Amino acid sequence: MPASRTLDLRGARNFSPPAPRRSWEIGAAPAASTRWGLSFNAGLRAAFAVLCAGLILFGVYIAVFYGGAALSGRWALWNAGSLPGLYDPNMPLATLGMGAHLFAGAVLMALGPLQFVPAIRQRRPALHRAIGRIYIAFAMLAAIGGLLFVFLKGTVGGLIMDVGATLYGALVIAFGFATIAFAIRNDFARHECWAMRLFALVSGALLYRIEYALWGALTSGAGHTASYDGWFDNVVNLGFYAPALVAAEAYIRTRGKPGSCGIQVASWLATAIIAAGVLLVIAKSWLPRIGLIL
């Protein structure tokens, strides 16, 4: 065998392929190329981009409407928002809890998408970590503020809505602690997974508005009552964040694997649903309420 061929074989034996890219950014390239790989990538990126746009707009709405009402001394306008009864002059501690919940929520909506920007994750890791710490701290603040309100005043929807809100707040706190715990242990793979779940859970606040907007447009509000205790209200109150958690879990368990036709269709369907819901919420709810402030 020629010497050059021997060297080539030795080089081949000593060759180690580059480590696969760790997939944090939504839509990162799958490990293997398939017929649906590119489409799956594009669909997932589109769904995530629309979700992030909706979250940022939601944060702007919270800041302008609820923040504007507070700064102008028109606290009663809080009761004209998505849910009635958020402001009660006779219960200042409950109002303080709700104020903390709203303020932290506005910050969360703006910061969450930044954690998925590749330029920040890859080129500014210190900034990424700082944003992550702030995000978790404000998630805890939003959850504690909401729980304080529920325990002191209760929700407009009664027992089932109270249970749903309490469970949601408890899950946010639990997911936040899990995210921190795995980071402290330097188990960054699990840290990333729990960070994704926390982001999905927080995104449920936007899904709550989307679900009501789409259901109202499709059914004229069947199962919804002014006191938020109809059958549809009860379903939403107990599981409004479930679609986000299911989507996040599906992504965590399939990332890096070849895409499929079903995943592609689901991604583009989710994109359309989120986009339609956000546009409906903006037109029917957010803009008219911001008009009350301006």
Task: Outline the structure in words.
With 294 residues, this protein is mainly α. 73% of the residues lie in helices and 0% in strands. It contains 10 helices and no strands. The longest helix has 35 residues. The termini are far apart. The N terminus is likely disordered.
Strand content is under 5%
- What structural category characterises the helix and strand content? mainly alpha
How many E-type strands?
A: 0
Question: What ranges have pLDDT less than 50 throughout 5 or more consecutive residues?
Answer: 1-39
**Number of H/I helices:** 10
Global Rg: 22 Å
Q: Biggest β-sheet, characterized?
A: none
Helical coverage, percent range: over 70%
Distance between the termini: 84 Å
Shape: globular
Average pLDDT over all residues: 86
SSE topology string: HHHHHHHHHH
